[in-house]
What we know:
This protein is α+β, with helices and mostly antiparallel strands and 422 residues long. It has 10 helices and 4 strands; from the N terminus they run ααααββααααββαα.
Amino acid sequence: MTDSLERAFLYLLAASMLVAVAQASEPPGANLDELLALARANNPEYAGMRFDAEAAAARVVPAGALADPRLEIELRDLTRMGERGPTLLPNRVGSTRYAITQELPWFGKRALKRAVAADEARGADYFAADGWLAVAAAIKQIFAERYALEVETRLSHEMLDLMARLERIALARYEGGLAPQQDVIRAQVEQTGIRNELIMLETDRHHLQVRMNALLGRPAEASLAVPEQLRALPEPARLDLATLAARATARNPMLAAAAATTSASERNRDLTYRNRYPDFMLGVAPVQECDAIREWELMVSLNLPLQRASRRAEEREAEAMVRAAQARQDSAANRLHAELAERVAVVDAARRATALIGGSLLPQAEATFQAALAGYETGTVDFATLLDAERQSIQARLNQVRAQTEALSALAEIERIVGEDL
Length: 422
């Protein structure tokens, strides 16, 4: 009994391990959240932006630090007025001077340099955040395109099966003298065209797979699971343009990065004006004679900012850089708000088109096709009318999923602009 229980336990353990391995080896792609998490961890472009941000943050402390002090050792009278041969021992020469000096910038310069570096670090953080939003938007768009491609492939296979059925009906009617041979040939030509479309769809599937894997940091030919379902569109009230514009102004990383750049330019301008004032050099120098310190020297030096023409040119440059940064910030805001308005209009139009297709066009096209199919079987409708009805039915379903894909693609861009998921 004990042996059988042990064998049963081992079988269960082995089965559990096999299930776990199978689940672990299942390729990603079915779920959008899983893809986003994978990309956040593995996308190399986003990783590079994060490291750039870390490097910029590490530059803040050194930017405002004092320069290292300098030490000078001066050996004087190496031969002791000719009493002995030259030597390099401090206690054997005439005297040895040890000078320690420290550079001290004018008041406030260090704080401004540190503030400039902090603004640049914030800008790098915002740039990395915008980079992630761009990656996430691309993943969302490709996910929707892959879903639409799978639907189109499934519809093409359904259409191929239908055309095979119509070929059999046309052949039976031709053999009974009720239809021309042209109907049979037309059905065969249609099947060949559908098979060619399936080849093109397979190529499109490969391209989307490669693009998705590049965003996920995976090998180009790595397999992906079929998307399970599309995201639901948010309620129209959540896509109010004025509300979204306000959220974009407050949260968009590129606008925040532009603001940080403007701030850094303003601080650089202030730092340039501080260059009108001199920097200092302080020093102290003990002088050794034999084995004892006999003298102490104190030094103060400063640079003389006399090159007024050069400094005025630098100040004009700094002012122009501030105005340029402000103009670019305003331009970025205008561009994002215009793009936001376009994307909201696209979502609204796609939403209305989807409702129209699903509510009226698709049922009408399906009813027309069923009536045409019944009419062809009884001989009251010709084959060309049947094909046209069949194309309208398939096209209505394709247009519906394409409208949904277009809406979700525009929604992904809106979320990139707003800086958060809706």
